[in-house]
Amino acid sequence: MKDYLLKFPDAWQFDVNDVIDNGIKAFSRNHREFFNIIKKGVVFSIHGIKDFLSFIPWWLFILIIVLIGCRVSRKKHVGILYGAMLFFIGSAGLWDHMLQTLSIIIASVVLSVLLGFPIGILLALKKDAERIVRPILDLMQTMPTFVYLIPAVMLFGVGITPALMATTIYAIVPMIRLTSHGIDQVDKEVLEAATAFGSTTLQTLVKVQIPQALPTIMTGVNQTIMMAMSMVVTCAIIGAEGLGMEILVATNRTEMGKALMPGISIVFIAVILDRITQGLVGDRERMPNE
Amino acid sequence: MSKDVIIKVENLCKLYGKNKAEATELMKRGADKDTVYKKTGVTVALWDVSFEVERGKIFVIIGLSGSGKSTLIRCLNLLTKPTSGKIYFEGEDIQKFSKQQILNYRRNKISMVFQNFGLMSHRNVLNNVAYGLEVKNVPRQLRENKAREMIALVGLDGWEEQAISNLSGGMKQRVGLARALASDPDVLLMDEPFSALDPLVRREMQFELLSIQSKLEKTIIFITHDINEAFKLGDTVAIMRDGKIIQIDTPERMSARPADDYVREFIESADKTQILTAKHVMIRPKCLVKPKDMPSQAIREMGANDVSTAYVVDDKMKFLGVITIDDAILARDKNLPMPSLIKTDVYTCHEDTILSEILSIAAESKYPLAVLDSQGKLKGIISKAAVLSSL
Ligand SMILES: Nc1ncnc2c1ncn2[C@@H]1O[C@H](COP(=O)(O)OP(=O)(O)OP(=O)(O)O)[C@@H](O)[C@H]1O
Ligand SMILES: [Mg+2]
């Protein structure tokens, strides 16, 4: 038997690793100024969010969450449960880490919503755009995160900037998908009615399509938050401080006890954010007026 | 006096599909819709449609499903762009309108009521009705006043702040009607507006529409596939088939001289379809008793439901008769068995009996009529008032 039939021939294998690495390095070197500005902006915003969160006294923070929890769930004990969860995080000595994690989450969710909402609308309205963007979205969601963590690090260095980029790339997808889906779903006859009464395209969008799609869009926001939460540990790998970093450090030292508390904290935060945003969706559906 | 024509349609055609030129050629040579579709893949939704609508009149378009009614009415406010032909509104060719002119035309001149209401579930009744005024930037106070006025006109006062989901079908269509009237248009387009409603509500809405029309004197173009509705509402009726108009006439002349068998069949169906029968007006009996029940139990049931007769059925709901409260009391006091006191001389009718036939029976009957199915099971009861009020 010929050798090349048994084993993929060496001569037919190609190697692009160096080309790509060098390309990105050169790109980053040539546009250093540009990336520095972005980096400064990101660091500034996330620190701003963190400073703001730290500015709120811990007890007030808990109180606010309790109140919001009571309001959206309409049950007192649910709000109190959320408060207890936060209290637990504080008493595990993780309050500050939680705020750090939260500030990256908030920044990436805000960025995802700000970018994802208009992109989603564009996709719903322009079917051509959809044909191009949909495969890209699939790619963003299925490509293992580490693959784009590396270029992000090469461009921005380690720290919160590439963490934010990676989180946003991952978390923006449901925002785009569900915004677009929500708008697509609007009843044809309702749209026709809007047109028949002399709405411009913009009026139809603002007065009919977006409000009608809002519950679906809010579900998108909720999923975006959940996706961002799931990136916390991954972000720690590229140097983002916070609960993820605690887990990572503990993992490296195989200290189960030390990893458990931040792990539970992440679950708690995820539960609270999930329920509160879902509660908001429900509220919308219950009170359709204004 | 010359006719005051508000809308005039000339040789309107609408084809759906790629190969329009070939389809047009075939149609001109007299091919029919199906053949054209098989040969070219083009659907001929409208072919060479011409008519005039007089101001202040109700023009009804009727035809089977797929005959092109919706396509036609949608051309009139340019929701659908015609393939060829002309549409004039007050003498102006609406297909020559600029974008802004089309908006103004839709905002001020012509509005629409939809089969499934087309209401916006995120807005309450008031804001739905005000929608047309909102898009033309009428100040809030003004548009809300106008909307309230229209809501009162369709008989929904007090419901302004309600969510759409809290309304019944009939009420939803009242909102649809109020919304269409709010911008004070000259023409109302109504695409099967009452088809989604049950027969009784439907009659009520037809009546409502006629009374509103007599007040406001709008021009109405109304689509239906129900010839009764067409003849009841229409000053003029146009009957469509496979994208063409077969006959345009007043209801009287159309029933006297149908243009062909298709029209004749439609007219003959008039007296069979959509005529109200017993099952449309019957209500559930409030008080049912079984022969083996104790008289005291029957008395309690009647007392609780505030009625003086109970309907007696066996375990399989087969109707046996009625028992009055006096007899039940007698049975209790004298300790008589209930079955001996059941009155069987009760007028009954089948659930498919036509209402006009029930009228004579109902007039004689002491108790509400018992409505039975073919197996003699009790389906409901009809009071004299219900028969009279629905005729
Ligand atoms: N957007 C479209 N694309 C292709 N064909 C269409 C389109 N709209 C309508 N048609 C076709 O045009 C014909 C007329 O349809 P139209 O909806 O006007 O009928 P209709 O009389 O309103 O029927 P119905 O009583 O079911 O509402 C039908 O054969 C339909 O399949
Ligand atoms: Mg139709």
Question: Which helices and strands occur, and which strands form pairs?
Answer:
The complex is a heterodimer of chains A (290) and B (391).
Chain A: H1 3-6, H2 17-30, H3 32-55, H4 58-73, H5 76-91, H6 95-125, H7 127-142, H8 145-156, H9 160-185, H10 188-196, H11 201-229, H12 232-237, H13 243-252, H14 256-286
Chain B: E1 5-16, H1 20-28, H2 33-40, E2 43-54, E3 58-63, H3 69-76, E4 84-89, E5 92-93, H4 99-109, E6 110-113, H5 125-129, H6 131-135, H7 140-153, H8 169-182, E7 187-191, H9 199-216, E8 219-224, H10 227-233, E9 236-241, E10 244-249, H11 251-256, H12 261-269, H13 278-281, E11 288-289, H14 295-305, E12 309-313, E13 319-324, H15 325-334, E14 348-350, H16 355-364, E15 369-372, E16 378-382, H17 384-390
The complex binds adenosine-5'-triphosphate (ATP) and magnesium ion.
Write a concise synopsis of the structure shown.
With 290 residues, chain A is an all-alpha fold.
Task: Give an account of the 3D structure.
The complex is a heterodimer of chains A (about 290) and B (about 400). With about 290 residues, chain A is an all-alpha fold. Chain A has a single domain (about 30-290), classed as MetI-like fold (Orthogonal Bundle), CATH 1.10.3720.10. Chain A has helices spanning about 5, 15-30, 30-55, 60-75, 75-90, 95-125, 125-140, 145-155, 160-185, 190-195, 200-230, 230-235, 245-250, 255-285. The mean pLDDT of chain A is about 90. Chain B has helices spanning about 20-30, 35-40, 70-75, 100-110, 125-130, 130-135, 140-155, 170-180, 200-215, 225-235, 250-255, 260-270, 280, 295-305, 325-335, 355-365, 385-390, and strands at about 5-15, 45-55, 60-65, 85-90, 90-95, 110-115, 185-190, 220-225, 235-240, 245-250, 290, 310-315, 320-325, 350, 370, 380. With about 400 residues, chain B is of the alpha/beta class. In chain B, α7 packs across α8 (about 170-180). Chain B contains 17 helices and 16 strands. The structure holds adenosine-5'-triphosphate and magnesium ion (MG). Adenosine-5'-triphosphate binds near residues 16, 65, 67, 69 and 71 of chain B.
